[in-house]
Amino acid sequence: MSEGFRMMGFIDLDRVIEIERRNYDFPWTRGNFADSIESGYCCLVMERSGFVAGYGVMMQVLDEAHLLNLSVAVNWQGMGMGKKLLMHFIDTAKGMGMNSFHLEVRPSNSVALNLYRRAGFSEIAVRPDYYPAEKGREDAVLMRMDL
Ligand SMILES: CC(C)(COP(=O)(O)OP(=O)(O)OC[C@H]1O[C@@H](n2cnc3c(N)ncnc32)[C@H](O)[C@@H]1OP(=O)(O)O)[C@@H](O)C(=O)NCCC(=O)NCCS
Question: Looking at the 3D structure of the chain, how many domains does it have?
Answer without folding.
Answer: 1
